[in-house]
Amino acid sequence: MSTTPRQIRITLLGVGILLVAGIVATAAFFSFSSTTSFCTSCHEMNVHKEELAQSPHAKDYDESAIDCADCHLPRGLGPRYLSVKTYLGVKDVFVHFTESPDSIDRRHSQPVARRFVDDASCQACHDDLYKDAKKEKDISEIGKLAHDNYNGKDGKSYRLCVDCHTNMAHLPSFDRRLDINQEFAAKLVAAEQLVAAEEQGGAQ
Amino acid sequence: MITISLTKKNMLLGACGLFILAVVGIGLFFLYLNFAFPVKHATGTHLAVPDQYTDCVTCHTKVSAQVTQDWREAKHGVTLVKCVVCHGEPDGKGSIPFMATPDPKLICSRCHDPAVVRMEAKYGNSADCYSCHAYHQNPVHSNAYETRVPTTQTTLDQPGQGF
Amino acid sequence: MKLSRREFLKGAAASTALAAIGLPGVAAAAEAETKWVKGVCRYCGTGCGVLVGVQNGKAVSIKGDPNNHNQGLLCLKGAMLIPVIYTPDRILEPMIRRNGKGSELEKVSWDEALDFAAKRFRDTISEFGPNAVAYYGSGQALTEESYLANKIWKAGFKTNNVDGNPRLCMASAVGGYTTTFGKDEPMGTYYDIDNATCFFIIGSNTSEAHPVLFRRIARRKQFNPDVKIIVVDPRRTNTSRIADLHLHFKPGTDLALLNGMAHVIIKDELDDYRFHGRHCVFKDNDGSERTFEDYKAFLAEYTPERVQEITGISAENVVKVARLFAESPNTLSLWCMGINQRSYGVWANNLIHNLHLLTGHIGRLGASPLSLTGQPNACGGVRDTGSLSHLLPAGRVIANEKHRNEMEDFWGVPRGTIQPTIGHHAVALFGAMATGDVKAVFIHCTNPAHTLPNLNKYTPGLQKAFIVQTECFHDAETTKYADVLLPAAFWCETDGVYGCTERRYSLTEQAVQPSGNSRPVVNIMMDFAKRAGVDPKLIPFENAADIWDEWRTLSNGSPYNFYGMTRERLKKESGIRWPCPTEDHPGTVLRFVRGEDPLVPADHPEKVFFYGNPNGKANILFRPYMPPFEPADADYPFVLTTGRVIDHWHTATMTGQVPELRKAYPGAFVEVNPEDAARMDIRNGDQVVLETRRDKMTFPAKVTDTCMPGLVFCPFFDKKKLVNRLFHDAVDNISKEPEYKICATKVYKQV
After folding, report:
1. Where are the domains of chain B?
2. Half-sphere exposure of A3 (CA within 13 A, CB side)
3. Contact across the interface for B37 and A146, Cβ inside 8 Å
4. Residue B108, min C-alpha distance to chain C (Å)
5. What DSSP letter does each residue of C105-174 carry, written as one string?
6. Whole-angstrom Cα distance, residue A26 to residue C482?
7. CA C475 to CA C486: how far, in whole Å?
8. Do B85 and C218 touch (CB under 8 A)?
9. Which residues make up the CATH 2.40.40.20 domain(s) of chain C?
10. Of C726, C750, C747, C729, residue with least CA distance to C739
11. Quick one: CA torsion of C244, C248, C254, C259, rounded to 10 degrees?
12. Rounded-to-integer distance, Cα C209 and Cα C265, Å
């Protein structure tokens, strides 16, 4: 059996159409699967959603909601984005079907999540490292020194934003005891108590 | 004019090729991922800070919250044996050399000499105390003393506190 | 992969180890030949035993002495003591100001410096009489030094102007013990901490001022969580971290609380009648004997409700704390400067003793009123040797002719040599320097230009008088005023005895040679005294060991008997507690108790015998509540208090030499309660002005809930900010100790 040029052309065309359709579909799927509503459609993400709602990062400086992807996926559509999107997507699906929400150990997922939070994602809002996100107040003196260091003054630290700024949007129970997280923890506990009270009320 | 005959052999070759391509692709993918998002960041130089901020805890409460908290809650924290006693000064100019992991023979034994001797008699000469004694958080006794609730309560008296 | 917590930590250790530097060199250094020499920590009154590691004649490391009471543990200051010896700020050559104050210090030979100083002393005495010279000593001086100075000045120069900085810290505790028990020094020891079931900690930040003792209390609490710890302090310090009950009250009102507790104890019939009925007498404020019924009547006004009104502690908590104190099997009280540095400090001390005597929490392991000392040798060196202006060695007083004659006979000087009138106490001494009554002073091992209260009033005195100073570190405040600066050998460069809080005497052996041209202070003093005209027969000593032997012999037969502590024995053992009358006596844990204390006859009919008082009984004294000298008012609405931080000791002349400690707290700050701070819009780091009736100063703010609202705290270690300028100089009537802890101040943000 042999192929004719016509057949090749048809094949190429078909492949081309498929490719374009594939890219469009992928892009659509990537875009759709990066929405907060998609992320939180899985049961195991509920806890993260609830934590985010109580966190200082629930809303950005102009009061619009911050999505999962704003922090957890790199900006733009370059290779950084594609690789992380692919990796995390496959990993999440795998974990979703192999583990139950209760068996997920957040001590292990924490470093993975931190690994892929890009500095550029943080600096999309916090572009002035010496002021708060609303650019109203100066940050603390210690903060300024630390950011000097981040910017390469006095010897660079080579650390990412999230290496120092932990528990910005999520607070696993084992981190609640930390002094710096007290405010966040208090809000979470209050919210949980509210939910528990409502559930109890509903049951009666 | 290209002709590709879809023989069994060719299909097998193609499949092999595709497999190799996929493996190489996935390999490259992870290579790139590790390059762009390293698992561990090289530790850089310690912050060169002016004198008034070298009380380690001020910064390390934020940048290594876990370690600082462990210290604070464990015996060394309650009794205020501060970082520099065991770790030295980051610039190496302190009274002991700067050590991220203090040498038990040099550091621990300054206060716990009897215990070090006792442990050595029991378990032999071990260079690593830390395999049993987690150094900041003493796993058995952490929180043993802690009764103080962090508070900003400012009434003159606090009924109901304690007990 | 599931990591166990232990493996996780191990991994973390391995990765952080990569960042460690210099480890191989350190290991090699540790393996070299190290000789360990026994000593006592130079810093606080806890008196921890240390071992100094010496290599090639140089001190290189330090570790805790496992055989002393601290069981090998050290606090952060003690662990970093070695760099202090070799700091560039050491004074290594004798120096004089040839052309008076303000001129440059000039390095001279020992002979020239001593002659210069001695001539001035000789001239002053011949022109203005012996009371124109004085000695101002220290609770950090070695016992031998204080004893020698006491002898040289009182019997040699024939003046009673011998005082020292213990007047600023321990005098009220001395007053408390002597008025209640007849003789000074506590009856308890640190063993009590391991046996107490209730701790009553009042006016003490044990955690920062006596860290190793605090650790012992914490360990007691850890092993037995049923042990109750009550901390009574207007500041919620780190000490309160282990407390079951922290009470803060309006500063200076604790006398009312203590009387209120006694009221509740008697009302609830929690007092031990068998004890106070047999071992105590009730005495009114004027010294007349009263009955238990009179005491009840005296306490009638201190109802919990009234106490709440005065102190701000709720009536409920007053009852609670009184019941805890009385009902617990063994209650141990610990207090320090919060009680002593007060215008009614002696009374406050008496009131604590009252509680123990009422409830019988005394004379058992774990039940005792134990006053903590601030300095390493205030107890042993100054209180016991009587190196204060109204005392003579071993519990004798100048006012008593019999005591004076005993000392004159022992010292081999004619009767009448020792003046019958008492000398100037610390604050008065510097006042007398300003008026010109005292013209030449020998200052040893202390920094009065930094530590005196109401400093602005007393610096003219330092400007006027001729000052000879033996000191180790230059650039302390007082060295700026010194006319003659004599380099003293520091700590383990010489040998001598320190006596700590629990009547324990421990010897510091000489580990290294004195740095530079410095000399042991006993040798300096003897040389100086001989040149200044003191009879050489009075000071026939070669070294500190000779002086120790004389002092030991003198103690024989006194209530301070430690005749059994020979130099050899002190070298072998890590500290012994007196009374210890013979060389085979192990030392005493429970003072005043039959079978324990060798000074209580074995056939004494009572188990407890307070032999300090002639009647063998302790006094329960009627001390009414008195407000502090300068409470907050409408013009000066805040209360200012001062104290230590853990990283620094006293005026930071020593701790300031250690890079770590210096950096941890490079300067003074003011603690402001968040509530007050919010009202005045003060944020962390803002410059805040403290203005009192004496002076005003600016400090960076530290907003924290450590201080209660209305109270601000400022540490006193910083020589750039002499906080003591802000304080008033009112002293306790009995002990003459100034009230450092309370003064009224304005607080506002600097604009």
Report:
1. 55-131
2. 15
3. no
4. 10
5. PEE--HHHHHHHHHHHHHHHHHHH-GGGEEEEE-TTS-HHHHHHHHHIIIIIS----EEETHHHHTHHHH
6. 85
7. 14
8. no
9. 638-727
10. C729
11. -50
12. 31
Contact residues, chain C, for B61 at CB < 8 Å: none
C360: number of Cβ within 10 Å:
21
pLDDT band at B55 (very low <50, low <70, confident <90, very high): confident
Facing residue for C659 by CB, picked from B75, B94, B153:
B94
Residue B113: which of C66, C248, C313 has the nearest Cβ? C66
CB contact under 8 A, A159 and B44: yes
Residue with the two structure tokens 């900690």: C201
pLDDT tens across C93-123, in order?
999 999 888 888 899 999 999 999 999 999 9
Residues 78-107 of B with CB under 8 A from C: 78-82, 84-85, 88-89, 92-95, 97-101, 103, 105-106
Do C657 and C84 contact (CB within 8 A), yes or no?
yes
Paired with C52 in beta bridges are: C37, C62
Q: Which residues of C touch B43 (CB under 8 A)?
A: 18-19
Nearest residue, CB atoms, B93 vs list C215, C238, C659: C659
What's the confidence (pLDDT) of residue C674?
Answer: 92
Q: Cβ C10–B130 below 8 Å, yes or no?
A: yes
- Is it true that domain C95-167+377-577 has CATH number 3.40.50.720? no
Q: Do B79 and C211 touch (CB under 8 A)?
A: yes
- The predicted pLDDT at position C34 comes to 87
Q: Output the six-digit token pair for A127.
A: 């572009």
Lowest-pLDDT range, C4-13, C142-151, C448-457?
C4-13
**C79 interaction partners in chain B (CB closer than 8 Å):** 85, 110-111
Q: In Å, how far from its chain's centre is CA C224? A: 30
Alpha carbons within 13 A on the beta-carbon side of C18: 11
Residue in chain A closest to B69 (alpha carbons) equals A178
Query: Chain B: nearest CA to A20, how far in angstroms?
Result: 20
Start-end of CATH 3.40.228.10 domains in chain C: 171-372
Is residue C510 classed as helix, strand or coil in its secondary structure? coil
Q: How many contiguous H segments (helices) and E segments (strands) does chain A have?
A: 10, 0
Lookup: tokens for C724: 């003591």
Residue of C nearest to B109 (CA): C63
Which residues on neighbouring strands pair with residue C49, listed in sequence order?
C40
Q: Which residues of C130-143 are buried (b: 16+ CB within 10 A; e: fewer)?
A: bbbbbbbbbbbbbb
CA-CA-CA-CA dihedral for B106, B107, B112, B118, to nearest 10? -40
Does B162 reach chain A within 8 Å, measured CB to CB? no
- Chain B, nearest residue to A117 by Cα: B37
Among all residues of chain B, which has the CA nearest to that of C703?
B152
pLDDT for residue C357 is more than 90: yes
- pLDDT tens for C447-505 read 999 999 999 999 999 999 999 999 888 888 899 999 999 999 999 999 999 999 999 99
Alpha-carbon distances of C200 from C249, C434, C705, C745, rounded to whole Å: 15, 42, 22, 30
Rounded to an integer, what distance in angstroms lies between the CA atom of residue A204 and that of residue A181? 34
- Domain C171-372: state its class: alpha beta
Residues of C known to be catalytic: 77, 169-170, 337, 374-375
- Nearest chain A alpha carbon to B49: A145
**Pair of tokens at residue C457:** 């009033």
ipTM here: 0.83
CATH class of C638-727: mainly beta
* Residues in B touching A160 (Cβ below 8 Å): 41
